[in-house]
Task: inverse folding
C-alpha cells in the first residue's frame, strides 16, 4: 500500500504534474512526471487515475488502481523529494501481469526523467 505521506490528494497536484510534467506512455500506462525543485524537502507524491472512457467497469478500474499503487509503493523511495507523478491506467493494463506493469512503470519513469532533464537544460 502506498504510504499516506506519498499519496497525491489535491487536484492542483494532479493538474501541475499533468500539465507541466514530462509525459511518457505505453499501451498499458501513461506517466506524467514532474521533478522536484532544487532543495525540495516535501515528499514525492504519486497519484493514480484510470479514466472511465478507457476502462468502463468500475471494478476493473479499481483493480488497476490498486495494482499500480502497490507497485508504486515499492518504487516511491526512489523518487526525488518534491517530485509529482501521475500514473494513468489504460485498457491494456487490466489484462497485464504485475511483472509487465512493473516493467512498464520502470521504463516509462526512466524515460520521463530523461526527457525532463533534457527540457530543463
Result:
Amino acid at each position: 500500500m502506498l504510504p499516506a505521506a506519498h499519496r497525491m490528494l489535491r487536484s492542483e497536484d494532479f493538474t501541475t504534474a499533468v500539465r507541466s510534467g514530462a509525459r511518457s506512455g505505453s499501451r498499458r500506462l501513461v506517466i506524467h512526471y514532474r521533478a522536484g525543485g532544487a532543495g525540495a524537502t516535501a515528499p514525492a507524491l504519486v497519484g493514480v487515475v484510470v479514466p472511465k472512457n478507457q476502462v468502463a467497469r468500475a471494478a476493473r478500474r479499481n483493480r488497476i488502481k490498486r495494482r499500480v499503487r502497490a507497485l508504486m509503493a515499492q518504487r516511491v523511495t526512489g523518487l526525488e523529494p518534491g517530485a509529482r507523478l501521475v500514473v494513468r491506467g489504460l485498457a491494456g493494463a487490466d489484462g497485464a501481469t504485475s511483472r509487465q506493469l512493473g516493467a512498464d512503470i520502470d521504463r516509462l519513469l526512466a524515460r520521463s526523467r530523461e526527457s525532463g532533464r533534457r527540457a530543463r537544460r
About this structure: The two ends are 35 Å apart (CA to CA).
